[in-house]
Amino acid sequence: MRLLTIGTLEGQLTAATKIAVDKGASALNAECIDTARAILHSEGADLLMVDIAIDIRDLLWRLETEHIHVPIVACGTRNDARAANAAIEAGAKEYIPLPADAEIIAAILAAVAEETSEGLRRDDGAATRIVGRTVADVERDLILETLRHCLGNRTRAANILGISIRTLRNKLTVYAADGVEVPPPNSGEIRGAA
Hints:
The chain contains eight helices and five strands. By secondary structure, it is α/β, with parallel strands linked by helices.
């Protein structure tokens, strides 16, 4: 398990990192998003523990545009329900108040390790689900699922997919003409093709 902490929280993240290392994790620290991105590109990580003062929504957006998917646990120095909800709504998997005890850190590490191994098993099964389907069908499903994930944001979806916005728009026009439901721009809702 590779842990990357982002921020400082007045030394509280250092204490949490020490607990994680004692539980068998390797750990690195970054004080800002840009340093964290550089570390993720060079070293990788299985879990991010992020200071609640860091903009988690911005962090996730930056990571997604670079096709980096790592679970995030937000951390704060007090038990603040509003901050916890905001962090989870922004995309964090969990919020823990610091200082955290060793059992909480161990449980989070175990949950992430289990989720990672389940994800690998699911990915193996996903390969068999695409066998027998046309490339066009698989491409359409990938594009529409990515667009839903981006709440209809065409530019963001095109960046994630690695295609131009023009190509994405052309494909969406064809899908709508074929009667496929296409998420409208920036809404997250599905509209029927007319």
